[in-house]
Write a structure and sequence with these properties.
The protein has about 170 residues and is of the alpha+beta class. The chain contains four helices and seven strands. It has a single domain (about 5-165), classed as Gcn5-related N-acetyltransferase (GNAT) (Aminopeptidase). The chain has helices spanning about 20-30, 40-45, 105-120, 135-145; strands spanning about 10-15, 50-55, 60-70, 90-95, 125-130, 145-150, 160-165. The protein has a seven-stranded mixed beta sheet, sandwiched between helices. A hairpin with a 2-residue loop joins strand 2 (about 50-55) and strand 3 (about 60-70). The chain is globular. The structure holds coenzyme A. Coenzyme A (COA) binds near residues 102, 136 and 137. Coenzyme A binds near residues 96, 104, 106, 108 and 137.
Amino acid sequence: MDPLTDSSALTLRRAVTTDSVRLADLTKRFFPYIHLSADHVFERIKNGIVYFVLARDDEVLGFIDFELNAEPNPRHATAEKPPLSSPKTAKILGLCVVPELQGQGWGKKLLAAALGEAKDIGCTQAVMLVEESNAKAIRIYEQAGFQRHGKLVQKLWDKDVLMFVRLL
Ligand SMILES: CC(C)(COP(=O)(O)OP(=O)(O)OC[C@H]1O[C@@H](n2cnc3c(N)ncnc32)[C@H](O)[C@@H]1OP(=O)(O)O)[C@@H](O)C(=O)NCCC(=O)NCCS
């Protein structure tokens, strides 16, 4: 069996700081417009940004991360609604799975793990920004109960971005 597609040894777990290099590599691969070095990822994990990883031993094959937003973020103003305000919002930052393992439910499992953790730590809603053209990701969020909140007034990284929200 191809070791890359063999799902038998895959686990979904919280990231640890020793995952930083691999997380930075994946970030660069899937979100090249986000410039996050391994040192930055290390600091983010230490500072409480929650990462869940899809891993085989110490190899990282996917991740989701979120941070807590205490204040409304003015950049989250959409054409339809003002910025969200909530004392505890989980802002999901990135979600990715390596192509060899896509379509096997790992993206949904990572999302479910992040939402479960966000709820456990007292978040009342989750927010997700996604490129308008990313139909596959949008489908996952909608299936997970996210609703379209609107399109960001300002482009992000020069892209049209939609905001999705889900109560927890
Ligand atoms: C978005 C992403 C994380 C989804 O991961 P995944 O592990 O493939 O997701 P799942 O296997 O849980 O499947 C999710 C849905 O996508 C569908 N899907 C899988 N592969 C697909 C493909 N090649 N084309 C279209 N839909 C596909 C699945 O059928 C499933 O929907 P269904 O349950 O209704 O059938 C992954 O595609 C990815 O890493 N993309 C690049 C990074 C990205 O765009 N991230 C999102 C923005 S933050």
